[in-house]
């Protein structure tokens, strides 16, 4: 039985394009810290290729960790969060719930990069919601609330705890409250 966090392959391809948008929106934060490191941008491009149907789900699942930025490779917390957004986006091929992870890490990157603007994460969530198609919105609404499932990206763990977890829950709450059009 598939996980309620997985989504169908067609839905994963649809939400992958939005997850790539979310990650790409914060790539300048990463690139300001590591201008010669193109790994997150390459992950975003792979996510887009997967969304277009140019890469198979099976192959992308096998290589979903290839090209990610490891813990400690970037010292600036905002840049690390931006890199994690790209890593979450490329993992959508495996499980659709990672799209919410890409969005949450992107909002966290913005919040860290702009500590004097408490509204920065909220504004990033506004941008993300404004860039959702009705199909993305419908697919993401089928995912269980963060922390409700025992496993997967929305289960207990880094994605659903701390500031990123709060952002993810805020995104899910706002997604549920918005109209589908």
Task: Provide keyphrases for this structure.
single chain; 181 residues; mainly alpha; 9 helices; 0% strand
Task: Outline the structure in words.
Helix 3 runs parallel beside helix 5, helix 5 (77-90) runs antiparallel to helix 6 (98-113) and helix 6 (98-113) packs across helix 9 (162-177). This protein has 9 helices and no strands. The radius of gyration is 15 Å and the shape is globular. The chain has one domain (9-177). With 181 residues, the protein is an all-alpha fold. Helix content is 60%, strand content 0%.
Short description:
The chain is mainly alpha-helical and 181 residues long.
Oligomer: single chain
Uncertain spans, ≥5 residues at pLDDT below 50?
none
Strand content: under 5%
Q: What's the mean pLDDT score?
A: 90
Rough shape?
A: globular
| Major sheet | none
Annotation field: number of helices: 9
Ends apart, CA distance between termini: 31 Å
